[in-house]
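Protocol step 6 of 9: fold each sequence in the batch and record its structure tokens directly after the sequence line. For illustration, a two-sequence batch is reproduced in full.

Sequence one:
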Amino acid sequence: MDGGGIEGWGVIWAPDGAVRWLASVRRGNGRVVMLDPQEPEIRSVGVAGVASFSVDIIVFAGSHGAVPEEVYWKSVFPNNPMPKALKDILPPLVNSGDAYSDRGIDIRYYVRMYTDTFKQLNAAIKPRRNHGDCDPRLYEHEYSRDGMTNRDELRSQGKYGDGESNKESETTFFLQRDLRIGKLVNLPSLVATSDETAFLPDRVAKAIPFSSDKFSEILNSFSLKPQTREANLMDETIRGCERAAINGEEKFCASSLESFTDLSVTKLGKRIQLLSNELSKETNNTLFTIARGMQNMGENELVCHKMEYPGAVFLCHSIDKTTVYKVPLVGRDGTSANALAVCHKDTSSWSPKHMAFQVLKVKPGTVTICHFLTRDTLVWVSN
């Protein structure tokens, strides 16, 4: 191959839509370096040699190791580094250090890899993420009728041990007056193992249907059978994404870094920042005290819940009169955290059966209701 470093990338697609090659470009010499997934070799050819194929726009990354999602993020937010919470769930590279190698693998490879990972995550009983706030009409809960955690049931699922944290009721919904310095909170969902399910590459995500009326096709794409645990979780995620928004709510689902970014910018504009829950270290301690320094991040928000799916899917929604708070916490074991909480000032459109009203023994629309967000939830707010 000609000398010089790889300065940009592009994907070459065969006429049938399959990923054929990844094209890496060396500036100034008119050569294209290609990795053929059907013929695992790297070769250098002239641009004329790929004239019969469709070539995606080449983006010069400016440095070795840049992947398409990072280049895309930089094009939208040139002055803002990609947050770690997003970097951790970018589509994986096939070979570490080869920024171009993963894009030379066809869609079937990604589907197989993501399906295998999804099955592994669900091989044992997996603690279900708490997505009550995804659907304000009805809270799908794992709590007893008094709103407190059913610890015996959760302990049988391996969700809790027998430590001190279990002696305190889990903090679910609470009144705004309880969001104050010195308040003790019990947050198992904050310290739960982070879900590292990665985004699919944008082109792969777009090639696979995402709708309940094509669910059989989706299962076939991921080589999954109906009525399995994985299929049921995926069905629930899709239906959650398709549910109608309530009054005062805007919502969408995103299954790639590009769609996650584009749809958020469409809603809030480019002068935004992405927030995530932060822990100083991994811990099994769930008991925290609210410390000084709480920040009101405003009401121009978009809360994005990570859903159950082979690739990362976020259900993002904005509910009128909802304030986001960044809450400093100190754990019983010394762990520090910055947790995200939201307070809903208007719950008049929520179902009277929502668990929040059972926990607090109040009626819709009468008081401000707050709750902390689970570990993998991301929140966009205006700068």
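Sequence two, same batch, same settings:
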Amino acid sequence: MDLQEKRVLLTGGSVGIGKALVAGLGQRGVHDIAVMGRRPQPLEAMQL
């Protein structure tokens, strides 16, 4: 799948598999990544 210049909304992306997906999507050229999660602290720690 070609992900260059794509935009992604990822729910549950602050820990575990979701966090790994965020890193992988960034490496594959995703243009914008929006991450949602229940706990604010892990989300704030992810600011890229």
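Proceed to step 7 once all outputs are recorded. Observation for sequence two: The chain has one domain: 7-45.
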